[in-house]
Amino acid sequence: MDPRQFLAEQFAEHEQTVATTRDAVAESFAALVEACSRAIEAGGKILFFGNGGSAADAQHLAAELVVRYRVNGRALAAIALTTDTSLLTACANDFSYDDIFARQVEALMKPEDVAIGISTSGNSGSVIKALETARAIGGTAAGLAGRDGGKMVGVADPLVVVPSTVTARIQEMHILLGHALCDMLEKRHRPGVQAH
Ligand SMILES: O=C(CO)[C@@H](O)[C@H](O)[C@H](O)[C@H](O)COP(=O)(O)O
Ligand SMILES: [Zn+2]
């Protein structure tokens, strides 16, 4: 296949996903913003986690909040649970892979915090177990998912579900939603000088 034609099809599929996602997620996205906003006002933090491409999203979004999105201002409390290879390998080796995020939630999560699990299928065991742990602690267990939300339905609330079955397109919506979340939180909680 010609790469130009292929790229045109990829863009068309992406644009179609943008169009169907915009209205589908408006309410759940607003609920996620409010939950994170409340956490920041209460002195809490946001914990991000996910597997594969979603692990990259987790650390990308935590960096926006701790460092800067658009505005130079105060640091906002966020952490990605995907970055400590000693911890991740010990936990997967000694306990089980499904414990890699749950163990960190158990150690770090406070009731005023928000845990945001990111999973395109909504079914990754490591994400589900961590969200269940967050709920048991009394914190907010939130999620970004795709497809029909999978096992995250009933575990994560708020749960933002991208109505697509294509993993790559779901991930593209997740980072758009994550950037929008960081932008909103920065507007509300990081007064400062616009950097770009
Ligand atoms: O980035 C991709 C595919 O675009 C992959 O690395 C993908 O994230 C991995 O297969 C994940 O393990 C999928 O997990 P999940 O999104 O279903 O929770
Ligand atoms: Zn990917």
Topology:
Layout: H1 3-24, H2 26-41, E1 46-50, H3 53-66, E2 71-73, E3 78-80, H4 85-94, H5 102-108, E4 114-118, H6 125-137, E5 140-146, E6 159-162, H7 167-189, E7 192-194
Parallel strand pairs: 1-3, 1-4, 4-5, 5-6
Antiparallel strand pairs: 2-7
Helix pairs in contact: 1-7, 2-7, 3-7, 5-6
The structure holds D-altro-hept-2-ulose 7-phosphate and zinc ion.
D-altro-hept-2-ulose 7-phosphate (I22) is lined by residues 51-54, 119-121, 124, 127, 167-168, 171.
Please describe what this structure looks like.
Its EC number is 5.3.1.28. Pfam families: SIS_2. One of its GO terms (molecular function) is D-sedoheptulose 7-phosphate isomerase activity. By secondary structure, the chain is α/β, with parallel strands linked by helices. It has one domain (3-194): Rossmann fold (3-Layer(aba) Sandwich). 54% of the residues lie in helices and 15% in strands. It has seven helices and seven strands, in the order ααβαββααβαββαβ. Strands 3-1-4-5-6 form a five-stranded parallel β-sheet. A two-stranded antiparallel sheet has the order 2-7. It is globular and about 50 Å long. The termini are far apart. The mean pLDDT is 97. The chain binds D-altro-hept-2-ulose 7-phosphate (I22) and zinc ion (ZN). Residues 53, 168, 171 line the site of zinc ion.
What do the pLDDT scores average to?
Answer: 97
Bound molecules: D-altro-hept-2-ulose 7-phosphate, zinc ion
Q: How many DSSP-defined strands? A: 7
CATH fold call: Rossmann fold
Low-confidence stretches: none
